[in-house]
Write a structure and sequence with these properties.
Number of strands: 17
Structural class: alpha+beta
Helix content: 25-40%
Order of helices and strands: HHEEEEEEHHHEEHEEEHHEHHEEHEEEH
Distance between the termini: 55 Å
């Protein structure tokens, strides 16, 4: 596998083509063996006609594999629906069954003969795999002696068929596993890219999503004085709300505290992935810490409704992809300070690329009518900022920004959302909620903190108010850049008029 990973792209393509050709060759040889087995069975047993049908239960069809006959008036159809074939009565048998034509079975049911039906006895041999009848071999004879007196030949055929089929299935599984790991190597290659760390996280989430057909992926990171969900994969089913805060005794908190991957199957909505307030806690979840030199910088939550999705090989792939993403982020930015949260600035506001990608993803969901929330984006700042900046030292201003980010955190007021950095003393916010008035209620709750003097953690008091420019996300908005332009206009208008109406 290491040799394959190190091979040039041209060599990989050749390897894939050769692997496909070997798999096609194995299938051809398997079919040839079945054809020879049916011929040998007819010859050794003295039967007039022998044939084999696969049972395709999903399409409710009998599919002809091969046949052998010494008769002239025989014509088989490759595919027949269950109701149009006499084998429908026998598709669930687990032991051989025989019928006498004319007495126990109507001759007209044997539609592969034309003019007349020259055989008198029919024997069905089921092939059972994993408790299910998957194929039936039919032997047709003129007299009962040839049908009843060939038990050794018949059982030798059944054993040979079982051995051939099991061998073919093992070979097919090996080829499928080989292709599976080839695809995995391609996933690793997709992480080998120089880009912003938020772009790499989004890329990682979307890659992991491909392994979860009925689930989703979320990324939990540190910022605003807490840990919260800051991003979901684009195709996530039942995604966690952006901004939902991580709480104790959740799967994410366990992974963040001990630095180990946690896995759980959910029973009766327990354990929770992130918070007691989350919905749709079902199936199973992996909580994978994103480590950078053993520092916990995030937690990837990968969940699926079907716990069987998380095979050991799949778990290995998910963990390793997250590990490689952490290494790639450090490789892209050698000067990164891993002793501090790397997805937020020094004041705790998340990097702009996170809210941009979140807004773009939500606009797409709104246009495709997938979103179940009301969503807002906007800008928020202090009303008398110029006056404060002339009175305070740099260290006091820095302390004020740290305190403001924690105070503005929507989760402090019961709303899910994130606060991002826009420029000094101006912060962006993204809020999601089922309440159509959530952003107005959040603003009103915020204002109460500034009715009297606002106390900083260092004991200093400031007299100020807030100015907010919120914009509700709608499908007509093209992208995050257009939404940001509207938010700037809303903030400018609020500064001039003193109003904070949603645009």
């Amino acid at each position: 596998m290491n040799n394959y990973a190190a091979a040039p792209e041209e060599d990989r393509s050749k390897a894939e083509i050769m692997g496909q050709k070997r798999q096609e060759k194995a299938l051809r040889e398997f079919k040839h063996v079945l054809k020879d087995l049916i011929f040998l069975l007819r010859s050794a047993s003295g039967m007039q006609t022998v044939y084999m049908y696969w049972i395709n239960r999903s399409r409710e069809q009998f599919v002809l594999e091969t046949k052998s006959t010494e008769l002239d008036n025989v014509m088989f159809k490759d595919r027949l629906t269950f109701e149009n074939h006499f084998l429908n009565e026998f598709k669930d048998i687990s032991e051989p069954a025989s019928r006498e034509i004319g007495r126990e079975m109507d001759p007209s049911l044997l539609k592969h003969y034309y003019d007349n039906v020259p055989v008198r006895y029919v024997t069905m041999l089921p092939f059972v795999n994993n408790g299910e009848t998957v194929a039936i071999t039919v032997l047709e004879a003129r007299d009962q002696i040839s049908a009843d007196g060939q038990s050794d030949v018949i059982y030798s055929y059944i054993d040979a068929l079982r051995n051939v089929l099991n061998t073919y299935l093992e070979i097919s599984d090996l080829y499928e596993q080989q292709n599976e790991w080839i695809d995995y190597e391609k996933c690793l290659d997709r992480l080998n890219v120089r880009c912003h760390r938020a772009e790499l996280v989004k890329r990682l989430l979307n890659i992991l999503q491909e392994f979860l057909p009925d689930g989703g992926v979320s990324f939990v990171a540190q910022g605003m004085g807490s840990w919260c969900n800051v991003m979901n994969s684009d195709e996530a089913r039942h995604p966690l709300p952006v901004g939902m805060t991580m709480e104790k005794r959740s799967l994410a908190s366990e992974a963040a505290e001990n630095g180990n991957t946690e896995f759980a199957i959910h029973f009766n909505n327990s354990p929770k992935r992130l918070s007691p307030r989350e919905q749709h806690t079902e199936g199973a979840t992996m909580a994978i810490p994103l480590l950078m030199n053993d520092r916990r910088q995030g937690v990837v939550l990968a969940h699926d409704k079907n716990p069987l999705t998380f095979k050991e090989s799949t778990k290995h792939k998910l963990k390793n992809l997250v590990r490689v993403a952490g290494l790639q982020i450090m490789g892209n930015d050698p000067g990164i300070d891993i002793d501090e949260p790397v997805f937020a600035n020094k004041f705790g506001a998340f990097l702009p690329d996170f809210w941009k990608k979140t807004v773009d993803a939500e606009l797409l969901n709104i246009r495709e009518e997938k979103s179940k929330f009301h969503s807002w984006f906007g800008l928020i700042t202090l009303s008398n900022l110029p006056k404060l900046r002339t009175k305070m030292r740099i260290d006091q201003l820095d302390q004020m920004q740290r305190d403001l980010v924690r105070t503005f955190n929507p989760s402090q007021y019961g709303y899910t959302g994130i606060l991002g950095f826009h420029s000094d003393y101006i912060y962006s916010f993204f809020i999601q909620n089922k309440d159509s008035e959530a952003v107005d209620k959040w603003i009103a709750a915020l204002r109460k903190n500034f009715l009297n003097s606002f106390e900083l953690d260092n004991g200093m008091h400031i007299e100020t108010d807030i100015t907010v420019g919120p914009v509700k996300l709608v499908g007509e908005s093209q992208d995050s850049y257009q939404v940001l332009t509207k938010a700037k206009s809303a903030l400018s208008g609020a500064m001039k008029s003193g109003n904070n109406e949603v645009q």
